[in-house]
Write a structure and sequence with these properties.
Number of domains: 2
Radius of gyration: 19 Å
Helix content: 10-25%
CATH superfamily of the largest domain: Translation factors
CATH class of the largest domain: Mainly Beta
CATH topology of the largest domain: Elongation Factor Tu (Ef-tu), domain 3
Distance between the termini: 34 Å
Strand order of the largest sheet: 1-5-4-7-2-3-6
CATH architecture of the largest domain: Beta Barrel
Shape: globular
Number of helices: 7
Strand content: 25-35%
Number of strands: 13
Largest sheet: 7 strands, antiparallel
Order of helices and strands: HEEEEEEHEEHEHEEHEHHE
């Protein structure tokens, strides 16, 4: 394992199909990593939450008679221990957290978890927390662990907290938080527009579709990044696209290298028209990325975190609120 992490630290983009060897294999072909699918930041939630003392409920308190053992709890904060971590590229890290190996995480497609970290005290002396949502990229059916892919920002309170963690440290987690409830064949064609770590909820859905032989959904992904080296999970995405004819991917970057053969610049109307399904009751467009990209493509969520109105490129092209989902 130590050798793997030394080698992984030098790899960019990472070859995720070789990550975390020794874990149980999924039903995917051998090239598939043991990951289901974001986030990374989902929906741009950014707020502080206050608790006088953490209410930590541990897995061994779950009543096994009520059904399969589930690690997550939507009502209480749980401590999950960091098992290991690896550097993916210059600013992104992979974190594996462990729990009871006989339990499942309890994550549905597509949903996320929320994490919290202490950031001092308020004027009344109560502990103040920063809270951020993330989408695990491990297979939802994996037992005993889940993986988070996190980009570390210089001013990011939560991402800096994750960057400071060492194996054996714990993080408070609550969830799952349901986003889009995906069901097989719910649409004939799903288009996806992702920026940076916004790829994680997309992967959760892509993996669910591709591992189900009865799901005939066509998937088209437009994935935008700053540079080719910033494209997360590119190896995995390329292998999946080469192996499954119902998955099409187009990359675009702001700063292309000399040997780059993908798109250049921000996602445009032309890219959407050529790469994604047109407005239709049989199509759904999913969008996840930084606020600037969201505003450009679809508009952000409403102040109450509901979906809000569609604006930007998608509105100009005729997509309605029923045809667009914003993570």
């Amino acid at each position: 394992m130590a050798f793997f992490y030394r080698r992984l630290a030098k790899a960019a983009p990472i070859a995720f199909s070789h990550a975390f060897r020794g874990q149980p294999k999924s039903n995917f072909p051998s090239f598939r990593v043991p990951f289901g699918a974001i986030a990374a930041i989902s929906g741009g939630i950014s707020y502080y939450y206050y608790f006088s003392s953490p209410n930590l409920v541990h897995l061994d308190q779950i009543n096994e008679e009520t059904g399969p053992k589930v690690a997550l709890n939507p009502d209480n904060w749980l401590e999950f221990k960091l098992q290991d971590r690896a550097k993916v590229n210059h600013n992104t890290h992979l974190f594996r957290f462990s729990f009871d190996p006989t339990a499942k995480l309890g994550l549905d497609v597509a949903s996320c978890i929320i994490t919290r970290a202490p950031v001092g005290q308020d004027p009344e002396g109560k502990t103040k927390y920063v809270i951020r949502p993330y989408t695990p990229i491990s297979d939802p059916d994996s037992k005993g662990y889940f993986d988070l892919l996190i980009k570390v920002y210089p001013e990011g309170k939560m991402s800096q907290h994750f960057a400071s963690l060492k194996p054996g440290d714990v993080v408070d987690v609550k969830g799952p938080i349901e986003k889009l409830r995906y069901t097989p064949n719910m649409k004939k064609h799903i288009g996806m527009i992702a920026g940076g770590t916004g790829i994680t909820p997309m992967l959760q859905i892509i993996d669910a579709i591709l591992r189900n032989p009865d799901d005939n959904t066509q998937v088209s992904l437009l994935y935008a990044n700053v540079s080719p080296n910033d494209i997360l999970l590119k190896h995995k995405l390329d292998v999946l696209a080469a192996s499954y004819p119902n998955l099409k991917i187009f990359y675009t970057v702001d700063n292309p290298s000399k040997d780059w053969n993908g798109g250049s610049g921000y996602i445009t109307k032309d890219m959407v028209v050529k790469g994604l399904p047109g407005p239709s009751d049989d199509a759904l467009i999913l969008v996840c990325g930084p606020p600037g990209m969201m505003n450009h493509i679809s508009g952000g969520k409403a102040k109450d975190w509901s979906q809000g109105e569609v604006s930007g490129i998608l509105k100009e092209l005729g997509y309605t609120e029923q045809m667009v989902y914003k993570f």
